[in-house]
User: Fold 1-aminocyclopropane-1-carboxylate oxidase-like protein 1 from Forsythia ovata.
Amino acid sequence: MVVPSNEHYDWAKEVKEFDDTKAGVKGLVDAGVAKIPKFFVHPPKSLPAPSKTTLELPTIDFEGVENDGARRKEVVEEIRTAAGKWGFFRIVNHGVPLHIMDAMLEAIKRFHEQPVEDKMHLYSADSRQRVRFNSNVPQREYDSACWRDILTCVFHDDQLDPDAIPLACSEALACLYYPICPEPDKTLGTPKHSDTTFLTLLMQDTIGGLQILHDNQWVDVPPVISNDKFISVEHRVLAQPVGPRISVASFFTPSLRAGAKPFAPIKEILSDENPAIYREFLFKEYYEYYKTKGQDVTSALPHFRINE
Assistant:
C-alpha cells in the first residue's frame, strides 16, 4: 500500500477517471503517457531488485506417460517432488501442438489490441460476470494497481456459453496483457502472491518477466516454447520497458459439488509424526478471505492453520 505524500492527491478521483475510460492500461500506453498514474506506484520494498539467482528449474517430460505404466509412475513421482520442493515445474512433450499455443497467444493479443469501443462492453469488476475484461483497479484506498489488463472467462464445471466468449479470443480462463511500461521501476505487472486454486497451468510468450520465490530468493522463469507437502509457490510478474507480454493461465478449482464439501489435509499423508496443521474449511471461505485481505496477504493458508 502506498500513501502519497501529497495531501491534495485525490486517489479515488484518479482511479475513477481511469476506470471510466474502460480502456485499461493499454489505453494509457496508446495515449503516450510518459509517467504512470500515482495509484500504479508500489512501495519500494515490494519492487524488484536485480535477480542474481540462476537455478535449474524442474522440467518434467510427459513423453510416454499415456501408454507406459512404469513411465507414468516416474512422472507422478517427479511431479510430487517438484510440487513439494518448488511448488512449480515446467512441462514438455505435453501433446499440445505448438501452432495451437501460438494461436492462443495471438488471440489474446488480438483481443486486447482491439479498438476500445469493441471491447468496452465487457469491462467490469463484477466477479459474477463470467466473461469480463478489466484492469485490476484496486478496491481499497491506496492499494496499488498493477500494470496489466486481463480478460477472464469463468467455466463452472467446464460449462460456458461459447457465444459469451469474444470472437477475437480463445476459450482460455485468464488472458493477460502486460503493455510496455514507461516507468517499470515503480510498479509491477502482478504483485507477490500465491494462487487460490488447486492447480494453475500457465503459458507465456517469449518476453519473460515471471519470477517465483524459492528459498527466499526471486528466481526468473525464462520462457520456454498438501498439508504443506505441496507448496503454493509465491510468484510475481515484473513491469518491463518492452512488450507487450502475453500469458494465459488456466486455474483449476473445485467443482460446484466438490466446493460444497469441506477441505482438509490429505489423510493418507497424515501420521503421528506428521499431524494435520490446517483445520477443515470450505473453498468459498478460503477464497473470500484471500480476496478481502487484498495486498495484506500473499496466501490465505496461515489463517486456517491450527494453533499449536
